[in-house]
Design a protein that fits this description.
By secondary structure, this protein is of the alpha/beta class. It is built from 11 helices and 14 strands. It has a 10-stranded mixed β-sheet with strand order 2-1-3-14-13-4-5-12-10-11, with helices on both faces. A two-stranded antiparallel ribbon has the order 6-9. The structure holds 3-isopropylmalic acid and manganese (II) ion (MN). The site of 3-isopropylmalic acid (IPM) has 5 residues, from α4.
Length: 371
């Protein structure tokens, strides 16, 4: 028996998580395990009612679970950034989920916008650093003069910037990107280990030509790690070039490791080449702590409550969750079942089918039971 936390969140989040749980429960029946779900009412509704984003109580309760199954956050009634930073990023940072794993895989039967490319060409995985870079959230806006202490607090380290800035510009805004040697090393090491289990090819993405301090350090650490993994063919791509190659030659890639912000951008591109955001899952992983699995798309508020959202990405993220907690066969069975549903056109509207959100979940669950 596994105890797993779930956070439906906002918009279509609760609907897609409901279907994901249905499918994971079906996989449990088939593979002889069960899941005890604990739901957390975290999201816009509670925030609007009580002003709470994540409480100390939420965090200490959530830390008791090996994994969180997360839907989506984002709501029109709340200013952009509040929920994203206060809930999603806060969870990633608090639980030190330093690996953001995003498989880019074209399933058989799914249409890719890349002419002539097949599932054999589109099968790689992006390992996005998930706690540093421009996501540390330190910066400011000021006029003329400002003296400020900016801090990054992490389990691994602390950084304090004492800044005294003077300017005669009308107004100045700045945002600091942070990369640390240990922060880069742990995610790059993870990516090398993953490449060793796959096709032994690792590409690092950066922009060391323009931002040589932070991405120069990233590169240096990458080279050091490469030296201790001679079995992996490794190389660098600048981020602008990588967007070009994802489109032109996706078959070149096996594992891609990237700092946080570029990872955010290139995985949306990756989602499109694998058939769209409706098919793109992600895992926020702390190998020693509480990890979190979610679709990479957002809360799509305009589809809320209509039972039309596509739960595929969430179901796939659920498969990653099972793989993470030690149920690889059940995890593989779920991805197989998605493939069967695609072949039989048991898919929602955005994938060319007719099924509702709940009927799609039923179809995938049924397919697992009938294996
Ligand atoms: C993602 C999202 C988040 C990110 C936002 C909502 C903070 O775009 O998971 O890719 O930028 O990481
Ligand atoms: Mn994103």
């Amino acid at each position: 028996m596994y105890r797993i936390a779930s956070i439906g969140g906002d918009g279509i989040g609760p609907e897609i998580i409901r279907e994901g749980k249905k499918v994971l429960d079906a996989a449990g029946e088939k593979f002889n395990f069960s899941i005890e779900w604990t739901d957390f009412g975290i999201g816009a509704d509670r925030y609007l009612e009580t002003g709470e984003l994540l409480t100390g109580g939420d965090l200490s309760e959530l830390s008791e679970f090996p994994a969180i199954y997360f839907g989506a956050i984002g709501d029109e009634r709340v200013q952009p950034g509040i929920l994203e930073k206060g809930i999603l990023l806060n969870l990633r940072f608090y639980f030190d989920q330093y690996i953001n794993l995003r498989p880019i895989r074209l399933l058989e039967g799914v249409t890719t916008p890349l002419a002539g490319k097949t599932p054999a060409d589109i099968d790689f995985i992006v390992v996005r650093e998930n706690t540093e870079d421009f996501y540390v959230g330190i910066g400011s806006r000021f006029k003329q003069h400002q003296k400020l202490l900016l801090e990054v607090e992490r389990e691994l380290y602390q950084v304090k910037f004492g800044l005294d800035v003077e300017s005669d510009a009308e107004e100045v805004a700045y945002q600091i990107g942070v990369i640390t040697r240990e922060g880069a090393r742990r995610v790059i090491e993870y990516a090398f280990a993953l490449a060793e289990k796959r096709r032994r090819k690792l590409t690092s993405v950066d922009n060391a030509n323009v931002l040589p301090d932070i991405y120069g350090l990233w590169r240096e650490v990458f080279n050091e790690c490469a030296a201790s993994h001679p079995g992996v063919t490794s190389g660098f791509n600048f981020v602008d070039a990588v967007t070009m190659w994802f489109v032109k030659n996706p078959e070149w890639f096996d594992v891609v490791v990237t700092p946080n912000m570029f990872g955010d951008i290139i995985t949306d591109l990756g989602a499109m080449i694998q058939g769209g955001l409706g098919l793109a899952p992600g895992g926020n992983i702390n190998p020693e702590g509480t990890s979190m699995f979610e679709p990479i798309h957002g809360s799509a508020p305009k589809y809320k409550g209509k039972n039309i959202a596509n739960p595929f990405a969430t179901i796939w993220a659920g498969s990653m969750l099972l793989d993470h907690i030690g149920e690889p066969d059940a995890a593989a069975a779920i991805v197989d079942a998605l493939g069967v549903c695609i072949r039989e056109n048991k898919v929602p509207k955005d994938m060319g089918g007719t099924l509702s959100t709940s009927a799609t979940g039923d179809a995938v669950a049924e397919c697992i039971r009938n294996r």
